Sequence to fold (415 residues):
Amino acid sequence: MVKNLRDRNLRPEATISCVWAVSTIYHDIMCITSKAIKGLAVTECLMFHIQNYYKHELTLKSYRKISAKMGDSKTLKPGTIVGFCNPLLDMMVVGDQNLLKKYDLLSNNAILADNKHMPLYEELMNNSKVEYTAGGSAQNSLRVVQWILKKPNVSVFFGAVGKDKFSEILKVKANEDGLDTKYQYSTEKPTGTCAVVVTNNGKDRSLCANLSAAKTFTEDHLEVPENKSIIENASFYLVTGFFLQVNPKAVQILVKIAFERKCTFLFNMSASFVFKFCMDSVKSIFPFVNIIVGNDEEAKAFSDGYEWNLDSVEKIACKMSTFDVENIGNRLVVITQGENPVIVTQNGVVTKYSVNKIPADKIIDSNGAGDAFIGGFISKYILGCPIEECVSCGIDAGSYIIQQPGITKDDSFNL
Fold:
C-alpha cells in the first residue's frame, strides 16, 4: 500500500496522512513484517516502516507536528526557505526578429553576454519603452513564494550585487514582497543586468544576462555568522543552474548541508547551456538533488550531457527520477512543456498535468513564467501539500505571470 501511494507522487507527509487514515479504520491489522515492534499498535508499526522506507527520522510526535502544519503558512519560521542565484536588474523591451538577429540572439532562450552583446544594454537604456524590474531566477521564484504564503521572511535570498543604486532598487523591491535578502556586495563590479527581448506577441523571450557583480559571489559569504545560521537552520534549499556556473564550490557546500540535515534540495535547471558548459559540476551534485525542475529543452540538454540518447521527454524524465538515487532514496522530476502538459515523474512513474489555456491576446510576457511556476510549486510543497496541489499552484502562478509585464502582480493576484 505504501509503495502504491508513493508511486502516485505523493509527498512523504501526504502519504503518511493517507496511511494514518487507513490505519485507524483497519485497527486490527497485525504488524507482520520481520521488523515489527513488539507491543506497538498498528499505527506505530506503520509509522515505523514508513520511516525506514523514506529514510526520514519520523516519530509519532513529529508526525503530529507535520500534520498540524499542512496548509498553514503561519507556522513557518523565518528562513525556512533559502535560495541562491544571480540577482539581476531586468531591462525588458518588446522587440522583433531584427533585434534578435542584430545581437545573435534566439527567441525563447537564455545566454550569458559576451563582448558582442554589450551595445545591446546601451540600446535598451536609450529605448523610451524599456521597463526595469527586479530579476534573477531564484529571487523571482522566492518573491512569488512570498506573495502566496503572505508571511514575511519565510524565504531568504543570497547572491552578489554591486554597491550601487541598482542593488538598492533590488533590495527595496524584494523587501516589499516580503523576501529577506543577504546580498554579498562588490565594490569593483556593478550590479548585474539582464536584457529581456520579448517577441511573438509575448509568447517568447530571449534573455541575455550580463552577470557583472553576480559573478563575484564567494563561498566566504556562506560563513558569515548570520548567514551560516540561516543556512544551517533552513528546511528547503533552492539553487539554480545559473548559480552553479558562477560558484560550483558554493553549491557543493550547500547540497552537502541539505543532505546531512535531511532537508530538501531543489535544483532549477535554468537553461540548456548549463549542461553544455557545467556538466562536471552538475554530475557532482545530482546524486543529492531531491527535486529537479526545468523545461523540455533543458531536460533534453541534460540528457545529452549524460549521453543517454533518449528520444522523448517522458523517457528522459523517468531516467532522471531513477538515476543516481542511492543517497537520497527517490527523486522528483518536474518538466514543463509550454502549452503542453507538465510531466512529473518519481520512481520512474509518469503523471501528466494539463496547463491552463491562455488566449493569445491575454499573453503579455512569458519572461518569468518558469520562475513563477517554481515559486508556486515551492509554496505548497513547503506546507506538505500533495504533489498534484504543488504542481497545480505552479501552473496557476505561471499562468498569472504570463499575463503580466515581468514578475509583477496586481490586486487580482490570489493563489
